[in-house]
Amino acid sequence: MTSKKNNESRISRIFSFNNLSISLTILWPVIFVLIPFAILTTISFLVYDDVNFFKMQFTLENYKRLVKDDYLPVLLNSLVPSLITTIITLVISYPLTFFITRKFSKKTQKFLIFLVIIPYWTSSLLRSYGIRIILGTEGILNTILIHLKIISAPLEIIYTPTAVIVGFVYLLIPLMILPLYSTMEKLDSRLIEAAYDLKASKLQTFLKVIWPLTLPGVTVGSFMVFLPSMGMFYVADILGGAKSILIGNLVKGQFLEVRNWPMGATLNTLILVFLLLFLLIYKEKSHWGHK
Amino acid sequence: MKFFTLLITLSTLFSFATTIVTTTMAATTTHTSQDKVVYFYNWTEYLPDDVIKDFEKETGIKVIYSTYDNNEAMYAKIKMQKENPYDIVVPSGYFVKKMVEAKLLQKIDQKKLNNFKNLDPDLLNKSFDPKNQYTIPYFWGSTVIAVNKTKIDPNQIKSFKDLWKKEFKNKVLLLNDMREVFFISLKTLKLNGNTKNESEIKKAYENLLQLKPNIKAFDSDSPKTAFLAGEVAIGAIWNGEIFQAMKENRDISYIIPKEGAFFYLDNLAIPYNARNVENAYKLINFILRADIAKRIAMAVGYASPNLAARKLLPKEIANNPLIYPEKNLVKSGDFQDDVGDALQIYQRYFEKLKL
Question: Which CATH number fits domain A71-290: 3.40.1650.10, 3.30.1640.10, 1.10.340.30, 1.10.3720.10?
Fold first, then answer.
């Protein structure tokens, strides 16, 4: 009798909500992230084939091509806009979020954060076209500035690297504000008061108390902005006039334009290695922080 | 936190469930009405809905219509998709040879298409399919020069070479398509626009480096937009795009460059694994019918290879030299053709150009 009961409870435990939800959250990335990446990485070691995309034959040629065909400078070049974007979004978001968390009631804060998120629900592709309309030579911004007699000739922003950065910052800023908000919201104001009590200057309080406590939010936010911006090739196409090349453009070109799957997979693997390196550094760093 | 896990789990379950339901539904529909469907895979905005509806009404055959926006995506689908294969696809001319070599297309029996006679003989028997054994011309077009008359005097522009002029700094728009961009450069150097020779491609690349300061943008999604928004003053784009832009803005004009335009021809074809071949013939024949071809041409705006349909078109379209260029121009121009593995070289230099 007791054993049967035990058995039943064990079964119900196996199928309990917690186990089910945990296994699903593991299954999801395994099926849709890990397996596809494993397949791609395998393809990157295979030979290009005009008809069947790839031949089942091992080669390192694709990786040699990375160096031989000067892909590495392209990769490094395409990091620059992403890096600039991350810095600008951080510089804008940090004081903004700090202001929101310090000056408003909890209820207003929630509402303001909600306002930050709303545009994110619209497709970034659509919003890129929207920016093009605003920044255009005969666009809204130029028309207003000329009407106000601030400028005499239209500013040429669209189809320049600046336009790409503007687009990235606008599209990705919610991803910086949200993690910052979650750390700043928890920031204990008594610690700041304590710092002042101990005669710390404003700068010292910021550097020794506020900054270290909000650093996790800064790191997460920076990753969330930096990583997607490397892949948003369509923003560079729409706002930058497709004149510059991001890593995303390279991968897309190999898969869709020349159908060289092994080379595309190789570039993709390279990005993956980059990302893993970043994450490792982050992990090490946060480890030091705890010490 | 618990609430969130619940939410995530529910949405996961939901998406699984919908996938299962849709796949089973798709499976059942194909079993029950196998001989009454035709799977048509076409370019976006290349066939109006009402034509499909009329075909369904007339024949009782259901058209399952889906679209793609580049040849490569279509190629991958044909290669990979085993369930419910497509019955009709529309590869571009330069892509046909590749698909025939890969044995992805089946031969077409012209006797089954009594409207085949409507087609313009000048657009048949092109180098990629010399006897039209595999393909039926669907639409064709060309890349020519567009100018904004308020910014540039069209009379001073004669050839592609004029795009290189110093005064057009930051004013030129090109298509974001390596073959199109290199064609222009190859032609100004008096080389073959479909070359596979690496040193020639390299020369074209070096020539393009000189053009680079003039290039304001590359765009092949909607090249007319940059003209209409006043971003660029001159460029080499598709004739259909110029035609549409001219309808919206009278200041836009076109020039057929003296080097000759670059032509493309999109074709109807039946994949090797099509299951509803007879229905595919019926639909192709329907599309080739003069009145239907005319309706499609009116909606799409590109040039129809259907001579019978052209007679039905309004004069201002049928006699518009932008859409239907003179015969000797078509003969002197180049049709875009497959370049095989040389495509990788083009890609490499195109990426370098953008660095």
Answer: 1.10.3720.10
